[in-house]
Amino acid sequence: MSKFKKTILISCISVAVVIAVALGVMFYISKNIEQKLSDMIQQNKICKVTNWDFSEKFGKSNGSFECNIQKDQLGQFITNFLINNLGSIVKPEERQKILDLSKLAQEDLDVRVEYQISHSLFSIANGFKSTGTLKILTPFYKNLLQESFGATNDDLLNFDFTKSLDSSDCLVKFTDIQTNKILLSGLNFKFNTNSQDEFKSVGFGIDKIKADGVELENLGLNLDLKDGIKDLNLETISTKYKTHNLKLDKFKVSSGMVSFVDISGVSTSGVNQEVEDKIVLSDKQQIAQISIFDVIFKNISWQTQTVFEKSFFDNYFAKYAKITNNINNPQELEKVLSEYLGNGIKINIKDFGFENKNSDKLNANLNLDIANFKNFQNLAKNTKFEGSVKISTSVDKFLSSYIGLDMIIQNLSEWLSEYFKKDGDGVKMEFYFDQDKSEIVINSLKRIKIDLGAKQPQQEDDKFKAVIEHSANALAQTLQSINTYYIANGGFGDNFIQMTGISDLETISDNEAILFVADKKCLKISFEEHTIDEKTAGFIKVEKFEDQEDEICGKFYQNEVFNEYFNTNLKNQNNAQIILRSK
Length: 583
Known about the structure:
Low-confidence stretches: 21-31, 454-460, 568-575
Number of strands: 27
Oligomer: single chain
Radius of gyration: 31 Å
Largest sheet: 22 strands, antiparallel
Strand content: 35-45%
């Protein structure tokens, strides 16, 4: 046999072996996929499977299953979702209104999932692909879907899922909502997970919203996450991202023929980096045009860089809530800011620019650096800012394009002209803050006095009163929230945030937290369960803590709200226990 014939024979045998192996692999996959799917469906923790059907075909299979979610479990899921995502940013008095949404779960929910799976040789290389639909079967929820959202069928969502060896991609698209008042189409979520089923990226999108005077088109947001995340919630998504990209084609608010706001061509991209003990957020934004009552700003763009202490970025929402909740209380706000921003914050706005309708350009830059914040009195001494503004033409000519604002423009033009100097065909203004004199210096000549400080209270007792009342209310809300949660769910949650979301608490373990009065550790609150008379009962334990000898803690213990709970229990001892209902 010639060498050439041997080569052909060997090649044919090789191809035959490859084909045989491939067919064997596909046969093996086809024969095993039913069992694997059965195990996955039956072992899921979301709902109880009541019916399952599978039709195996060579390279492609179809299937469906029906399952039941009990109304208590559904209500608990809604409650946990709301607490995990909104617990730390919603004021305590508003939380119950949001949690009332869990009452929508009035009946058990029955659903049907229909799916198709590709498991051909081509799929082995590109990942197994599954598409399907989730339908609502329970008449109560089906009618709710149709009446509330104008749904024409019982489909709730469609999904497109691809699984490879090291990752999975999932696209979930909800049914369109269309009533005589609102249209919402193309609501979708995208997820990418790694081989450990940890989320690596998430996305969100809406094709169109049209409601009474409001229009939105093509909104999309994508986030690449720094590390694999097991549990997604609003805070982990917002603070653990590596890069983000957002786009919005159109947003308009109008009434009849009158346009109030019309925004088009929005895009932003950014990077979230950890540099030593700092978080550096770098963003780039662009907007094609903004029209506000026909006042036009076009070709808007800018870049920002913000530097936080990493400690401030951790549990950001809880800290942000604590700041906003005290925005009208200068003394408390000062304490919060000194704790969270003691090492400062830096903001750099670079190449901010826009054009008027005549294409005259304005460009600006700003650097702001607040270091070593201790109180409002030292704010001026520790604040640096400097920047510049340039206009490609005169102030008068730049502002003259904004027709309809004649009186405002005339006064503004006269005022601004004092602070700009000639710069080629246009004008410019350079400025910085003189920390020693608390003055803004413009073009090295003009000075404007500003006051970055804040007046201290006249009487120390007045400050104590406001602080103590705030902390006493926080204590009452904490205990009421835990009590309500325990009764509603037949047990405690995994941690304080899940049950309360109170921003005045600092958790020291899953079941222990400190309640601060100002910056003093006056109380420790913990929860646990004991067996009493062969029944399990929940206990909330409140103890005076490390700073109990401090003056402000002493005044706090005398507060009437505090005594409403502990008038007898804490008069002669350092702890009290509240017995909740037995299970």
